[in-house]
From TrEMBL:
It comes from Labedella gwakjiensis. This is Scramblase. Pfam families: LOR. It comes from the Bacteria.
């Protein structure tokens, strides 16, 4: 069993655009690694993320391009996530912190296994401005809308963070 991810652009009217990257992740992998490819045959890697540590509830995930050059990283804030999932998110020129937007939904999700819509906002640690948001749409298939509000965030880093949210919150 695998999780399949498609990263798509948004058309000007808000509809789904073309696929710009795709990935498959084995469920329950001990050392998380997800590689994104430019093609469905998975022959041309574009970027990936990988956990630095094995089986660590607060592991740091490094995001690299196809050549292995670092793009950024993200890490679950384990203590804060007990009641409201929270993440550190960084890349060249920025440090951000993200949390579930709705505290009540965050708590309910811990006790009820239903496909709740949940949203994350990532804010710049220096300015407090929202740099990225990820919104899960209510549907049978998981769908997310990711808005990047800050030009410093590489689309590959934003995509890795969004997929990381899905993968880490599914456990």
């Amino acid at each position: 069993m695998v999780n399949r991810y498609e990263i798509r652009t948004a058309n000007p009217d808000g509809s789904e655009g073309q696929i710009i990257a795709m990935a498959q992740q084995k469920r329950l992998a001990f050392k998380e690694q997800v590689t994104f490819f430019a093609d469905e045959a998975r022959t041309q890697p574009v970027f990936s993320f990988k956990a630095r540590q094995r089986m660590d509830v607060a592991a740091t995930y490094d995001v690299v391009d196809a050549d292995g050059t670092p793009i950024g990283s993200f890490q679950k804030d384990f203590k804060a996530s007990l009641l409201r999932s929270s993440f550190h998110f960084s890349g060249p020129g920025f440090e951000a912190y993200g949390q579930e937007r709705n505290h009540a939904i965050a708590i309910i999700r811990r006790f009820v296994d239903l496909p709740f819509s949940f949203h994350f906002d990532f804010t710049d640690k220096q300015t407090g401005q929202v740099v990225m948001s990820s919104e899960r749409q209510f549907s049978l298939r998981d769908r997310y809308t990711v808005d990047v509000h800050d030009q410093r965030i590489d689309y590959r880093l934003a995509a890795a963070m969004a997929v990381g949210l899905d993968a880490l919150l599914q456990r």
